[in-house]
Design goal:
Layout: H1 2-17, H2 19-22, E1 29-35, H3 54-62, E2 64-70, H4 76-85, H5 89-92, E3 110-111, H6 126-132, E4 136-141, E5 159-161, E6 177-178, E7 187-188, H7 201-219, E8 223-228, H8 240-249, H9 259-281, E9 288-294, E10 302-305, E11 308-311, H10 327-330, E12 331-337, E13 346-348, E14 352-353, H11 356-364, H12 381-385, E15 396-400, E16 404-405, E17 408-409, E18 412-417, E19 420-425, E20 431-435, H13 451-468, E21 474-475
Parallel strand pairs: 1-8, 1-9, 2-13, 2-14, 4-5, 4-8
Antiparallel strand pairs: 2-12, 3-21, 6-7, 9-12, 10-11, 15-18, 16-17, 18-19, 19-20
Helix pairs in contact: 1-6, 7-9, 8-9
């Protein structure tokens, strides 16, 4: 791998030296806006009842909205690694968030599978591909893919504003640092000094993203802006006026009942509106691909609010949430607008996965991968042109060999093939089988009734794990059944 890395580095350096000269106005700009822990139904265009997202909804009306988009993992770090490399988390060996890779629980039946803490430097990212083509590459916001030796700058980003190895900020209010949570650990968000009291992190990250757009426009360079918001990840904090407005909207019967979370989603929506507005003001809107997505299913943990513990969100009608391999843990919103290519108001029901974005954006930016370059994603270009089309993909696979706490979940893998989905649980070798077309809420387990179908899918899942070198959990020799939670 080192030789391959050195060869690629030479290509990047040679291309970057002349990249600005090679870049032309015809190269489309790329903006990827990634939300953190945003549920599949947390946006107005996906049926949210409390949340208001007029700017994201407008993006949906102007582009293609995917109704069955999946995160490659039910948690953040593996998804982000897959998005930037086009490789499945199991192939990368990154299957849990960075901090969780250090040490898993030792009182459970299984010891979690090993997972890399950092994205290996030998992996080629989308940023490196586009940088070699003369693009200005910028990360604004969450990185969560490694320590200082594996920072965004080492993976093709010329600009890094706010990116660290941490997965969540200490607070959403300036100066964005302190020791209040996370076990007393001091956390901070770098490169955001010179703020003011009351300044809100989602707003400030958007300010920085607009500066990137302005700089690229003035330099007449195509750009790749990866705006990775922390919102609406915990800690649940929002601007007081916005919280009050959503509190006034609460009523019985709404699926979403957390006004703080709603206000955080509202600020995220404002960010999207500001980015789209700046692109148009700079005359860049017609030549910019805009992608909006979430990184995993909605978080179902509770947070105190006015003396009550209220879940952050509700993924209904999908089952469960973040950290699980049920649909509520894997399904995410995905919107893509490419002027001149996507049709306004397009709706695509074909199952896709965020791993597909690497190949899709590389192809759209005229940086198609070589035929021998490993990739677990497909080019979504045909679906962007014709949302009713189909992809030549046999199945989607998921691997989460770890425990999760809210809701409780144990190590498992899953496969979706057509309308069928199977989950294989590693603690007891049990499987569950669902027909997602007839039962999207995964309420009726058909594994016993359709044992032949279940075994066939289990066999395909096991073959896939072997092919990608998926790491597995192992029995815990110290486990005592009486100590099981």
């Amino acid at each position: 791998m080192n030789n391959a890395r050195h060869t690629w580095a030479a290509v990047v350096i040679a291309a970057f030296v002349s990249g600005a000269a090679m870049a032309s106005a015809a190269q489309p700009n790329v903006v990827v806006i990634l939300a953190d822990d945003l549920g599949a139904h947390d946006l107005g265009c996906y049926g949210a009842d409390l949340h208001e997202t007029p700017h994201v909804d407008r993006l949906a009306r102007e582009g293609v909205r995917f109704t069955q988009a999946y995160a490659p993992s039910p948690v953040c770090t593996p998804t982000r690694a897959a998005l930037l490399t086009g490789k499945h988390p199991a192939r990368l060996g990154i299957t849990i968030w960075s901090e969780g890779s250090v040490r898993g629980p030792t009182d459970r039946r299984l010891l979690q599978a090993a997972s890399w803490h950092d994205l290996p430097l030998g992996e080629v990212t989308l940023a490196e591909r586009l940088q070699a083509a003369g693009y200005l590459t910028a990360l604004v916001g969450k990185w969560h893919l490694g320590d200082a030796a594996h920072a965004p700058e080492t993976q093709g980003f010329e600009v890094n504003i706010g990116g660290t190895h941490w997965g969540a900020p200490q607070t959403y209010f300036w100066p964005y640092r302190g020791t209040r949570g996370f076990g007393g650990e001091f956390r901070y968000v770098p490169h955001l000094g010179m703020g003011r009291p009351g300044e809100y992190l989602t707003d400030r990250l958007t300010d920085e993203a607009l500066r990137v757009i302005d700089h690229a426009a003035e330099a007449k360079r195509p750009f790749f802006l990866y705006l990775a918001h922390h919102a609406p990840h915990t800690p649940l904090e929002a601007k007081p006026a916005a919280v009050a407005r959503y509190r006034a909207k609460l009523r019985p019967g709404l699926k979403h009942q957390n006004p703080v979370y709603a206000a955080m989603v509202g600020s995220l929506d404002e960010s999207v509106g500001r980015v789209l507005s700046r692109l148009n003001r700079r005359g860049l809107g017609r030549n910019t691909i805009v992608v909006f997505a979430g990184d995993n299913g909605g978080y179902l943990g509770t947070a105190p609010y006015e003396g009550r513990a209220i879940p952050a969100t509700d993924n209904w009608p999908l089952r469960s949430g973040k950290g699980t391999l049920y649909e509520g843990g894997l399904r995410v919103p995905l919107l893509v607008k490419w002027p001149g290519v996507t049709s306004a108001g397009g709706v695509c029901d074909e199952p896709v996965v965020l791993t597909d974005l690497f190949r899709t954006l590389a192809v759209l930016a005229r940086q198609a991968a070589s035929a021998d370059e490993p990739s677990d994603g497909l080019d979504l270009g045909p679906l962007l042109r014709n949302p009713r089309g189909r992809l030549d993909r046999e199945a989607l696979f998921f691997h989460y060999p770890h425990y999760y706490h809210a809701p409780p979940s144990t190590p498992a893998s899953a496969v979706r093939r057509g309308e069928w989905k199977l989950i294989e649980w590693f603690e007891d070798n049990r499987v569950e089988l669902y027909n997602l077309r007839e039962d999207p809420s995964e309420e009726r387990d058909l594994a016993t009734r359709l044992s032949g179908k279940a075994e066939a899918l289990r066999g395909q899942l096991q073959e896939w794990r072997a092919a990608v070198g998926a790491r597995m959990p192992r029995p815990n020799p110290e486990f005592k059944a009486s100590a099981s939670p």
